[in-house]
Amino acid sequence: MQHNGFRLRHSTQGGLMERDLKRIAQLKREFENKTIPEIIGRTKEEFGDKLAMTTAFGYSGIVLMSFVKDIIPDLPIYFIDTRLHFEETLKLARKIKKEWKLNIIHISTKYTEKELEELMGKETYKTNPDLCCQYRKVEPLLHVLKTKSAWLSAIRRDQARTREKIDIIEIDSRGSIKINPLYNWTRDQTWMYIRKYDLPYNPLHDQYYPSVGCKPCTAPIDKGGDERDGR
C-alpha cells in the first residue's frame, strides 16, 4: 500500500510546521466519521512504514490488536520486556503472537541485570521506581520512538483523570503522532467486546488488576477506582 510520505517537520523555533498541524486537524475531522477498522486502514495509508504500536497486553490493547491483525498484520508492535513482568503477561504475549500471527517485537534494556545493579543498586523498584522505569522502560522505548512518526494507542478517556481530554489523534510531548481509535470507549464497552468475540486477556484482570505493569509495582485496586491507580 502506498502512502503520501507524510512526516512531521519542525520549524527553526522547534515547533511543528503549520501545514503539519493543519494536516493533523484534517485527519481528526476525517477520523471522527470513521469506524475503527477504517481509522486503522486510513492511518496505515497515511503513515506507511512510519506507523507502529506499543503494547503491555492490557485488555484495551488486546481489543485494538484484534482489529490490527485483520487490517495490518505486519504492523510492528513493540512490547517492552522490563524483565519484571508477571508470568501471566508473558504467557499472554506468547499466545497472542502465536495464534494471531502478529509482528510483536520484544525490546529491552541494553544492560544485563548485573550492570543494572551496578548502575542503580539492588531492588531499585522499591527505593527509586522512577529510576528503575527510566532504565528498564523509558530508554528502550525512546530508542524505537525515533524510528517512527506515528503510533497506534489503546488508551481511553475513562482510564484515568489524566486521560480525560485525549483526542482521537494528537501530538505527544515528544512530537510523535498518537492515534487513539478507542479514545471514547468505556471500560464496560471494551469488556463487552472482549466477551462478545471471546478474545484472550490477562487473567489478572479478574483479580482486581485493571492495569497490569511490572510485578513489583502493580497492585489490585478497589472496584470503581481509576484503572491506573494500581500502577
From TrEMBL:
Pathway assigned in UniProt: Sulfur metabolism; hydrogen sulfide biosynthesis; sulfite from sulfate
Membership in a protein family: Belongs to the PAPS reductase family. CysH subfamily.
Single Gene Ontology MF annotation: phosphoadenylyl-sulfate reductase (thioredoxin) activity
Coiled coil spans: none
Phylogenetic classification of the source organism: unclassified sequences, metagenomes, ecological metagenomes
Keyword Mitochondrion attached: no
Protein name (record): Phosphoadenosine phosphosulphate reductase domain-containing protein
Ranges of residues in domain Phosphoadenosine phosphosulphate reductase: 51-220
Keywords in alphabetical order: Oxidoreductase
Chain segments annotated as transmembrane: none
The keyword Oxidoreductase belongs to this UniProt entry's keyword annotation: yes
